[in-house]
Amino acid sequence: MNIDSIGWNHLRGIEPLSLCDWPGKATCVFFMGGCNLNCPTCHNFDMAWNMEKLPVLPKEDIKSFLRNRAQWLDGVTITGGEPTLVPNLGEILFEIRKASKLPIKMDSNGMTPETLEDLLQQGLVEQFAIDVKGPYVKYPALTGQAVTAETARKNLERVFDLATVNPGAFYFRITKVPILTDDDVETARGYLPDGFDLTIQKYIPPRREHAHADNEAGRPVGNMVD
Ligand code: SF4
After folding, report:
1. Which of 46, 48, 117, 215 has the fewest Cβ atoms nearer than 10 Å?
2. CATH number at residue 70
3. Ligand 1 binding pocket includes 76 (Cβ within 6 Å)
4. Residue nearest to atom 1 of ligand 1 (CA)
């Protein structure tokens, strides 16, 4: 399998139309499998950790979908899992943009700031939605011990620096999972650079019996392309 196929192989879900993933825009949503965190509250656990259980969406079907649907869409949302981990991501985004001629918004947990910076500098992503999971001290518990408080702080501070220089390209969200108090949310809000706000997403408990149900805020994931 070549590197191009390995990257496209992560594309395991699609929502043909979403009115809530990019505020003010109608987008389709592509779900990329794999994640670097292990959040116990994850709704998208198969997409994050067991993407092999989900069907691959063929690249040519995706490009055909984009060519046919682009005229009714304002943009393309790329989510996961954690999409910044996908091999050859820049080439995939380039092909999505070429087929759709649409701007791209990407969700990220913010733990790969160098990739975010790279994508921004290449002009491949117009908008990043970054999840700030809570106070740094709670990151080990929030991420299944995947990152320390210090690693979370270091990575997010790099993202905040990027946002300060590119204020139109970022917004920040938090999902109020059960271990977060109101004070925790305010602590996380206090990390943001001047001029940014933290959007609070309601937490919906995962339904573990459903194979690939939703993201942390409880949104359904489809896998059909038409
Ligand atoms: S909630 Fe997001 S960052 Fe956490 S494991 Fe799931 S997909 Fe990864």
Report:
1. 117
2. 3.20.20.70
3. no
4. 42
